[in-house]
Specification:
globular; mainly alpha; about 400 residues
Length: about 400
């Protein structure tokens, strides 16, 4: 699954993690020194509103640093283990990571914009306001500039990712087709080659980008939420706690993650079995198209009964999973307001600060809720992964996974 697209070496993924840790460590420890050495001002200043956020000296240095880091890593693997898909798997993945980082920074830029705009709105609504229409229009124009950048990045990234996913599918397809004599007897083999390879590449890319985006969002917004916690002195029920907004976001998100993981633990196996019984039913129907002795009513009735039973089990388990997930997500809509009630009632924050807090809290909370938001997709991925694992076992002449041997 991975080796057909990425370099076929047991050291590749450890090297990815190690190089990422080294590069991040060097950046956070020495970026100020490096910037000063090349004449850039890396000192922290007030947030820049508008497109200027993306062309500060810190951003300029990061662009160069990231490009050099990727180039060094790619050059090493291009030399040590050249492969057909190396440009897509290494350089393509690096581009997707960069566009994800840029999307997160768009969110940061919009959050920086919220304070002056909503404070301006609040001031404009007060008696004897001195806020002019020109000031508000200027802020709205700055938002439009950021929005157009976001649209451009989104369109380019989606176009590139579409090609990236198909290249990954092509790599897996070519590998499994070359091993067809060994895998052709696996239940639903044709579907696994034709459909599951595409689903696996699509889901892996989507989940991978979402996970990286969640991590990058935490890196970008946790410091923001920490600093905004200075405006909130205590939490309802719990009273005074260190960095209340920061603490509440983490506690609430961990609770949701554990809750959904517990109630959805049976879903991956049921999704996998659902693919198996559907494949068995479809396969018999296909045989019946060319052979009058196949697809007899009693056989089809029995196979469809397996389909029915598995779907009904799936519906039941998804019912209580959806109850828990919906209750949590609905509560999540008002949780930030709930913990801010004492602060709002005391008039300790402005409307602009409130908007910043709500946005930052939402970003951090959603990032920590990666598992909550992605659980149904993860279930689908595990199902597809288990199906393709049977191919891997057949190719390696290993025993099939136990789940392949039963429909119960």
């Amino acid at each position: 699954m991975f080796k057909s697209f990425f370099p076929d070496s047991r050291w590749f993924w450890p090297s990815v993690i190690l190089w990422a840790v080294i590069c991040c460590g060097v950046w956070f420890e020495f970026s100020t020194v490096i910037g000063a050495a090349v004449g850039l001002d890396m000192a922290e200043k007030e947030p820049v509103i508008g497109l200027g956020h993306f062309v500060t000296d810190s951003f300029k240095l990061f662009y160069v640093y990231y490009a050099l880091s990727v180039a060094i890593f790619a050059l090493v693997w291009f030399t040590l283990k050249p492969s057909r898909w190396q440009w897509w798997s290494i350089i393509g993945s690096a581009f997707i990571l960069f566009s994800t980082y840029y999307s997160v920074q768009v969110s940061v830029a919009i959050n920086n914009w919220r304070r002056p705009f909503f404070d301006g709105v609040q001031a404009a609504l007060s008696p004897n306001s001195k806020v002019t229409t020109a000031e508000l229009y200027t802020l709205m124009l700055q938002f439009a500039e950021i929005a157009f950048v976001a649209i451009f990045i989104y369109v380019i990234t989606r176009f590139f990712v579409s090609h990236y996913i198909f290249r990954w599918r092509t790599a897996m397809n070519e590998f499994y087709v070359s091993q067809w004599p060994q895998v052709r007897n696996i239940e639903g083999a044709s579907q696994r080659v034709q459909e599951d390879t595409m689903r696996f590449a699509t889901i892996m890319e989507g989940l991978g980008v979402s996970m990286v985006e969640a991590i990058m969002t935490l890196v970008a917004f946790l410091p923001v939420l920490w600093s905004l916690s200075s405006y909130v002195s205590e939490l309802p029920v719990f009273g005074v706690v260190p960095a209340p907004l920061f603490t509440a976001a983490i506690a609430w998100s961990v609770f949701g993650t554990l809750l959904l993981a517990a109630v959805g633990i049976k879903l991956p196996g049921l999704e996998f079995r659902n693919q198996r019984v559907e494949a068995a039913y479809r396969k018999e129907l296909v045989y019946g198209e060319d052979n009058a002795e196949r697809a007899q009513p009693e056989t089809l009735k029995s196979l469809f009964l397996d389909v029915r039973n598995n779907y009904f089990r799936l519906y039941f388990h998804y019912m209580y999973f959806n109850v828990a997930r919906s209750l949590y997500l609905q509560a999540d809509n008002i949780f930030a307001y709930l913990i801010l009630v004492p602060t709002i009632a005391a008039g300790k924050i402005t409307f602009g600060i409130l908007q910043q807090i709500l946005t930052a809290f939402s970003q951090v909370s959603n990032s920590f809720q990666y598992l909550v938001n992605s659980w149904t997709t993860i279930v689908e991925l595990l199902s597809v992964y288990k199906r393709l694992t049977a191919f891997e076992a057949a190719i390696k002449h290993e025993a099939l996974p136990e789940i392949e041997l039963t429909n119960s």
